[in-house]
Design goal:
Elements: E1 8-10, E2 19-22, E3 27-31, H1 37-46, E4 52-59, E5 67-69, E6 72-73, E7 77-86, H2 88-104, E8 108-114, E9 120-123, E10 128-132, E11 167-169, H3 182-186, E12 192-198
Length: about 200
């Protein structure tokens, strides 16, 4: 069974297991248990000795969204923050400092990318990890190194959701801090708001 971060609840979690699938010529999609998420990110960072960036996507707070009726939104948005020009050491430090918070929070997405090769890893909601690369063959053994193996058709939490079996995601605080504290905390080392995009 796939172990989710603390900020997630899935009614049909008995159907979820670790595994990955090649979903296009440039994307791998995986279910990764919460205890492996940090090491998977560390692995990605370690195999990219080039300038990197950190990306953090946060749901826009309700007071900034436009309601069409009380409590009803036509669409939700995310603020997308970047920290550019990171060394491998800085990225590993970010994981050491904030990894437990990021992998357990149910309201955010985060990842790391490469300025030169353009490769990216993103950790989305419900423990869904995506890898983007124009040279996907470089990742043939990436997930297997973490005992996560290829499947013919990956079932993610998103595939299980219905009116009868909804998912639930919520904010998680860790040591008195939430993901919404990170942009201000990391501003002094260069984090900036890149865009606000619709979900």
């Amino acid at each position: 069974m796939l172990e989710l971060g603390k900020g997630y609840q899935v009614a049909a979690d008995q159907d979820l297991v670790e595994g990955y699938e090649q979903t296009s010529e440039t994307y791998l999609t995986a279910n990764v248990g919460v205890k492996k998420l940090v090491e998977v990110c560390q692995h990605f960072i370690a195999i990219h000795p080039e300038p990197l960036f950190f990306i953090l996507e946060l749901l826009v707070t309700a007071d900034r969204e436009e309601e069409v009726a009380p409590g009803v939104l036509t669409e939700s948005h995310r603020d997308v923050y970047y920290l550019d020009g990171c060394s491998q050491e800085v990225c590993l430090w970010l994981l050491e400092q904030y990894g437990d918070l990021l992998i357990n929070d149910g309201m955010s997405k985060f990842g790391f990318g490469c300025h030169q090769s353009q490769d990216e890893i993103m950790l989305g909601q419900y423990n869904v990890v995506t890898i983007y690369s124009q040279q996907l063959e470089n990742y043939a053994d990436f997930f297997a190194a973490h005992e996560i193996f290829q499947v013919n058709q990956l079932v993610t939490a998103w595939d299980t959701f219905s009116a009868q079996t909804p998912g639930k995601s919520e904010r998680v605080d860790y040591q008195g801090k939430s993901v919404y504290d990170l942009p201000a905390e990391l501003k002094e080392v260069g984090m900036y708001l890149g865009e606000t995009r619709a979900e």
